[in-house]
Design goal:
single chain; 262 residues; alpha+beta; Alpha-Beta Plaits; 2 domains; 4-stranded antiparallel β-sheet; 9 strands; 43% helix
């Protein structure tokens, strides 16, 4: 009878020691609350995970399973959200795995200076996400030549299609200009920004307009109220839809903070 392989250590984040505990009910990818592994002046947030899923070979195959990957990402995000309520964590990449507690301590030792400087960069700051969409243009009203019978000749059809296209292009231009102005103003509140590629509606299933801005902002907690209010004012403009999400752990800036630390 073979001996079961001991569980591995999944590392969600690194943070400084903090007062208090994670919110009750906070659960990670295993459905259980994560554990805080203290090592010197750093803390790793860890979970015990089965080797049959997270050892190098099985993990490579698991990452091809989109349902498994989505469930793992949700658990990962849930832990980071709980941490963000009590401290300023440095998120680690999805599926950062060590062999055991000693391996986690080696991870902290080898990256100590990089981690501590990144945590200084992110201390007291959270990430907000802002997306701006050009709303779909309403159908143009029929011209007099189209209206009486409801029948559309070839020339009238082309005119209508041209008006539709021009309306879409004009709406997109207005939304892009609004997004540029908004991004400049939000950047004045933020300490760092990250502009991501626009989201493809075929992947998200969102048919509510064309995404013209998909950005993240690193904002000091004490400035969050002004940041949110500014987004709210712009969201009232006609022809655009603004989506605000957060506050999140600073996923988009963990790499930037580490690069600056290096």
């Amino acid at each position: 009878m073979s001996t079961p392989t001991p569980p591995l250590r999944y590392v969600y984040a690194v943070c400084r020691p903090f007062d208090g505990v994670l919110p009750e009910g906070a659960a990670g990818i295993t459905g259980e609350p994560p554990r805080l592994l203290h090592h010197g002046d750093l803390v790793a947030v860890v979970d015990a995970v089965p080797a049959e899923d997270f050892d190098e070979g099985p993990l490579r195959a698991r990452l091809e399973d989109l349902d498994w990957l989505a469930a793992t990402a949700r658990g990962h995000d849930a832990v980071l959200a709980a941490l963000t309520a009590v401290t300023s964590p440095l998120p680690l990449r999805l599926a950062t795995v060590c062999r055991d507690d000693s391996g986690v301590r080696r991870l902290l030792d080898e990256g100590h200076d990089r981690f501590t400087r990144a945590l200084e960069r992110l201390d007291g700051r959270v990430e907000w996400g802002v997306k701006v969409y050009a709303e779909p243009a309403s159908a143009p009203r029929p011209t007099p030549s189209e209206a009486p019978s409801g029948k559309v000749g070839g020339r009238d059809y082309l005119r209508r299609r041209l008006r539709e296209r021009n309306g879409r292009e004009e709406g997109r231009r207005r939304a892009e200009e609004t997004s540029r102005v908004l991004h400049d103003r939000l950047s004045a509140y933020a300490e760092a920004t990250a502009v991501h590629p626009p989201q493809d509606p075929r992947l998200t299933g969102d048919t509510g307009g064309v995404n013209v801005l998909n950005a993240a902002y690193l904002v000091a907690r004490e400035r969050a109220e002004g940041f949110v209010a500014l987004v709210g004012r712009v969201s009232e403009e006609e022809g655009v839809r603004v989506e605000l999400t957060g506050p999140w752990a600073p996923y988009s800036f963990a790499g930037i903070a580490e690069e600056e630390a290096a």
